[in-house]
């Protein structure tokens, strides 16, 4: 009805989330594919929404934020990461920003483990072999992977997701090392070894996995110098953000054997990652799907709606960003 709040949806959500949206909001549409920034701004001007539900890969930077109509009270991103949003610019316009932490922690940690196992155990190469027609038994020493049990996993960023990865790694009998801005209390550390700098931790890591947010300060921080500090033949995992990595340096390290393998879910240039990755058999690649389960995507959408509804009735949203 006309009295319902107006929600601009930048992409379709899961069926359960769409059902709740259609029950409580007037929407401009539910595009199959993620809108571009231009489409979002044009739709906002024409539709005059009270709220915008968006996600990663749809940048809203300072100049874009200036073009939003005054009616917008909340931008709810269906993601934990907020690097696509200019938070200070949104706040300066009096717009509340919310994200979806916690509900995706387990699935993102599962994804890091999936990438780790796939990279260490050469899942991509095995799948390619099977599709081409296996045909001949493998020799005892052919296409061998790397054992992960007993190995040292270095986690950069020991927040909610990093700790969930550490917990899983303990189940695989791995030794966990971590680097983080601050050392965690013992009960959160759960036996992991703390390093104050990434550089000091790297020589001790058989596998390295990134779990920190992207920001101007962390842009390209995993560079040639740091990759060179890993023991030769280490494995690199990234289910966090592509912007954390100098991809030229990563590709060099994979080509030279400095890295034995990598498992990547995120890239600098999404959805068109550097094509050189595809030429490397020792890289296991997925298309930014860390949170892509029915359950988690539904939980994320529901939490975003809880945030929108709270803001529109003048209450505190459950998961505001930088408030
Ligand atoms: C995306 C993510 O939000 O939460 C994040 O920060 O990167 C993902 O969960 C999701 O893929 C929708 O774009």
UniProtKB/TrEMBL annotation:
<comment type="similarity">
    <text>Belongs to the D-isomer specific 2-hydroxyacid dehydrogenase family.</text>
</comment>
<dbReference type="Pfam" id="PF00389">
    <property type="entry name" value="2-Hacid_dh"/>
</dbReference>
<dbReference type="InterPro" id="IPR006140">
    <property type="entry name" value="D-isomer_DH_NAD-bd"/>
</dbReference>
<dbReference type="InterPro" id="IPR050223">
    <property type="entry name" value="D-isomer_2-hydroxyacid_DH"/>
</dbReference>
<feature type="domain" description="D-isomer specific 2-hydroxyacid dehydrogenase NAD-binding">
    <location>
        <begin position="114"/>
        <end position="290"/>
    </location>
</feature>
<feature type="domain" description="D-isomer specific 2-hydroxyacid dehydrogenase catalytic">
    <location>
        <begin position="15"/>
        <end position="321"/>
    </location>
</feature>
<dbReference type="Pfam" id="PF02826">
    <property type="entry name" value="2-Hacid_dh_C"/>
</dbReference>
<keyword id="KW-0560">Oxidoreductase</keyword>
<dbReference type="InterPro" id="IPR006139">
    <property type="entry name" value="D-isomer_2_OHA_DH_cat_dom"/>
</dbReference>
<protein>
    <submittedName>
        <fullName>D-glycerate dehydrogenase</fullName>
    </submittedName>
</protein>
<dbReference type="InterPro" id="IPR029753">
    <property type="entry name" value="D-isomer_DH_CS"/>
</dbReference>
<dbReference type="InterPro" id="IPR036291">
    <property type="entry name" value="NAD(P)-bd_dom_sf"/>
</dbReference>
């Amino acid at each position: 009805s006309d009295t319902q709040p107006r929600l601009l949806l930048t992409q379709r959500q899961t069926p359960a989330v769409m059902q709740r949206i259609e029950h409580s909001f007037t929407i401009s549409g539910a595009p199959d594919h993620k809108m571009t920034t231009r489409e979002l701004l044009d739709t906002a001007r024409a539709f005059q929404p009270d709220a915008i539900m968006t996600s990663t890969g749809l940048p809203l930077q300072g100049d874009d934020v200036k073009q939003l109509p005054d009616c917008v009270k909340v931008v709810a991103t269906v993601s934990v990461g907020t690097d696509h949003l200019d938070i200070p610019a949104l706040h300066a316009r009096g717009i509340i920003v919310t994200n979806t932490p916690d509900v995706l922690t387990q699935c993102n940690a599962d994804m890091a483990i999936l990438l780790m196992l796939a990279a260490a155990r050469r899942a991509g190469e095995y799948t390619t072999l099977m599709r081409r027609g296996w045909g001949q038994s493998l020799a005892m020493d052919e296409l061998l992977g790397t054992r992960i049990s007993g190995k040292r996993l270095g986690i950069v960023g020991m927040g909610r997701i990093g700790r969930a990865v550490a917990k899983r790694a303990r189940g695989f009998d791995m030794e966990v090392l971590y680097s983080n801005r601050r050392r965690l209390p013992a009960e959160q550390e759960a036996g992991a070894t703390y390093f104050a700098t990434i550089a000091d931790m790297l020589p001790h890591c058989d596998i390295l996995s990134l779990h920190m947010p992207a920001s101007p300060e962390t842009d390209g921080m995993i560079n040639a110098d740091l990759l060179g500090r890993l023991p030769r033949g280490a494995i690199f995992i990234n289910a966090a953000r592509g912007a954390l990595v100098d991809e030229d340096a990563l590709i060099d390290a994979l080509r030279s054997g400095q890295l034995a393998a990598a498992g990547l879910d995120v890239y600098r240039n999404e959805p068109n990652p550097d094509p050189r990755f595809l030429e490397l058999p020792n890289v296991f690649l997925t298309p930014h799907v860390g949170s892509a389960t029915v359950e988690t995507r539904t939980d994320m959408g529901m939490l975003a709606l809880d945030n929108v509804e709270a803001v529109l009735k003048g209450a505190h949203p459950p998961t505001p960003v930088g408030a």
